[in-house]
Write a structure and sequence with these properties.
Layout: E1 2-3, E2 12-13, H1 20-40, E3 63-67, E4 73-75, E5 78-80, H2 82-95, E6 100-105, H3 111-124, E7 128-131, H4 135-138
Parallel strand pairs: 3-6, 6-7
Antiparallel strand pairs: 1-2, 3-4, 4-5
């Protein structure tokens, strides 16, 4: 932008910085930080009291229900039918309401067999059910599929 008095002085250039866009950018960043700051600091710092104690160990041994590759059900090693499994689970919940049921299913078993065991356990009133897996299998190399 050329400046001059228009009467005969040569125009001179202006060396000013336009700070309006800079202020706009700073205001936008300020709004972004104001909005995101509460999301970042949601943790409540609490100074917890210290006490010398041991972790609570549950004395109840979980019951293991295994489903082999042929679809047979095993209740702690005994072969059962689905109806007998439901009766055993019902008796277990009456004797120990907080009993745990661990399901070990062979990878070749159809999902339907596992779903039937889950449904039978739910009908019997078992509320604590867990699935047992082999953690070493997750890190093993994948098996190559056979060539056609």
């Amino acid at each position: 932008m050329a400046l001059g008095d228009g009467v005969g002085q040569p125009p001179r250039s202006s060396a000013e910085i336009n700070i309006v866009p800079l202020v706009d950018v700073i205001l936008v960043l300020l709004v972004i930080f104001i909005v995101t700051a509460p999301l970042i600091t949601q943790a409540v710092k609490v100074n917890l009291p210290e006490a010398a104690s041991q972790p609570v160990q549950t004395p109840i041994k979980p019951v293991v229900v295994a489903i082999d590759a042929d679809g047979r059900l095993h209740w702690d090693g005994r072969v059962l039918t689905l109806e007998a499994l439901e009766a055993e689970a019902r008796a277990l919940t009456v004797a120990q309401p907080d009993a745990e049921l661990h399901i070990e299913a062979d990878r070749a078993v159809a999902y339907d067999a596992v779903a039937q065991v889950l449904a039978a356990a739910a009908r019997a009133g078992v509320t604590r059910i867990g699935f047992v897996t082999d953690p070493g299998a997750l890190h093993a190399a994948p098996k190559a599929s056979p060539a056609p």
